[in-house]
Specification:
single chain, about 130 residues, mainly alpha
């Protein structure tokens, strides 16, 4: 696995999500969500956006590396299926949370989709590289 390329894509995804967050804030979108623990609604900080991009993508790439060792040619389709499910499930709080206004939903959803799409892109391109090498 090309860990350098993975690090670059993760950093680029975090940067793009940060740009989305900054654009939303410049447009005066609240980005207020209910915390998982029953506390007061609060604005999503930029640090949380970066953290919620870097950590799941890093974990997903470690999982993909393990899948490649165990499942070989089935690793990519299994990973892509799991990544689609996890990405869609990560959108659930955006849809269900009654505190989130429509504008915030419109700006938060692409951040989740971008992170999932980037992880899928990495897996598929690494699969293509591996197939081309054989």
């Amino acid at each position: 696995m090309d860990w350098r390329r993975i690090a670059i894509v993760i950093a680029a995804t975090a940067a793009l999500n940060s740009v989305l967050w900054l654009a939303a804030r410049l447009l005066d979108v609240s980005l207020v969500v209910s915390p998982a623990s029953a506390g007061e609604p609060q604005q999503v900080p930029l640090a949380a956006v970066v953290f919620a991009t870097v950590v799941p993508m890093s974990m997903s790439m470690v999982m993909f590396a393990l899948l490649r060792r165990v499942l070989r040619q089935w690793a990519t389709p299994v990973f892509v299926a799991l990544a689609v499910v996890v990405t869609l499930l990560s959108m659930t709080p955006i849809v269900v949370d009654e505190v989130i206004d429509t504008a915030s939903r419109i700006w938060l959803a692409p951040m989740h989709l971008l992170t999932g799409a980037a992880a899928i892109h990495l897996a598929v391109t690494m699969h293509d590289d591996r197939v081309a090498a054989t």
